[in-house]
Write a structure and sequence with these properties.
Organism: Thalassotalea piscium
CATH architecture: 3-Layer(aba) Sandwich
Protein name: GNAT superfamily N-acetyltransferase
Structural class: alpha+beta
Strand content: 25-35%
Domain N-acetyltransferase: 17-199
Shape: globular
InterPro entries: Acyl_CoA_acyltransferase, GNAT_dom
Number of domains: 1
Oligomer: single chain
Distance between the termini: 26 Å
Pfam families: Acetyltransf_1
Number of helices: 5
CATH superfamily: Gcn5-related N-acetyltransferase (GNAT)
C-alpha cells in the first residue's frame, strides 16, 4: 500500500502526516472520528461498508485516510461515478457535466486538533486524482453551512468549489432516523450547500 508522508507545523511543532487509500482496517477509526466531528449515527458499520464500496471503480479507490503516529486525524470518502443516487438535494441541470461523469464527495473529516493545516485539502486532492482516473470530470458535494465559521464551505471554495444551490433541512430525515446533529440534535434543520468542482 502506497503511503504519502507530508510535514505539517502546528503551534511550533512539526508532525508527519501519512496519507494512503482507505481500507476496511480503517473502518473503526473512521466511525470514531466521524462520530466525534459529525455526531452520533452519522456513520455506522453498515454505512461505512456501503460508502467505501461506492468509492471503488476499475480497481481504483477514491477514498483516503490521514494518520499521525498511527492515529487517524482525517479521512475523505468519495463515491465513484454512477455509484450514487442523484436525489432531490441535487440540481444536475446546473452542473454542465453529464451526470455519469460526476463523482460524489461524500464526507471530509479532520480532527479538530489538526484543522487549518491543509489536511482536508490534501485528502481532497488525492480523491480528485483517483476520481479522474476512474473517469470523472467533476465532483459534487453537500457542505455543512453551519460548520464553525462556515469552514466547510470556505475550504471547499478554496479548492475550486462553486456553489450550485443551498438546500435547507438537508439532513432532517436522517436526524429522524437516529442521526444526532452537533447543533440541532435529533431534529436537524441545517443547510447544505450543493457545490461542484470541475476537473
Amino acid at each position: 500500500m502506497i503511503t504519502i508522508t507530508m510535514l505539517v507545523t502546528t503551534e511550533n511543532h512539526e508532525h508527519n502526516i501519512n496519507y494512503r487509500v482507505m481500507s476496511p482496517d480503517d473502518f473503526y477509526a473512521v466511525i470514531t472520528l466521524a462520530t466525534d466531528v459529525h455526531g452520533e449515527g452519522y456513520i455506522d458499520p453498515q454505512s461505512i461498508t456501503k460508502w467505501f464500496n461506492r468509492g471503488l471503480l476499475n480497481n481504483i479507490n477514491a477514498s483516503f485516510v490521514a494518520y499521525h503516529n498511527e492515529v487517524l486525524v482525517g479521512f475523505r470518502l468519495t463515491f465513484a461515478c454512477d455509484t450514487w443516487l442523484i436525489d432531490q438535494w441535487c440540481t444536475p441541470d446546473l452542473w454542465e457535466i453529464p451526470t455519469d461523469k460526476v463523482c460524489y464527495f461524500k464526507c471530509n473529516t479532520v480532527d479538530e486538533n489538526f484543522r487549518g493545516y491543509g489536511i482536508g485539502s490534501q485528502l481532497l486532492k488525492l480523491s480528485i486524482n483517483a476520481a479522474k482516473q476512474q473517469g470523472a470530470l467533476a465532483g459534487i458535494s453537500h457542505l455543512w453551512r453551519e460548520s464553525p465559521e462556515n469552514s466547510a464551505v470556505n475550504y471547499f471554495s478554496k479548492c475550486g468549489g462553486e456553489l450550485i444551490k443551498d438546500h435547507p433541512d438537508r439532513w432532517n430525515e436522517l436526524s429522524q432516523q437516529g442521526y444526532c446533529c452537533p447543533i440541532c440534535e435529533d431534529d436537524c434543520h441545517c443547510t447544505a450547500a450543493e457545490m461542484i468542482i470541475r476537473f
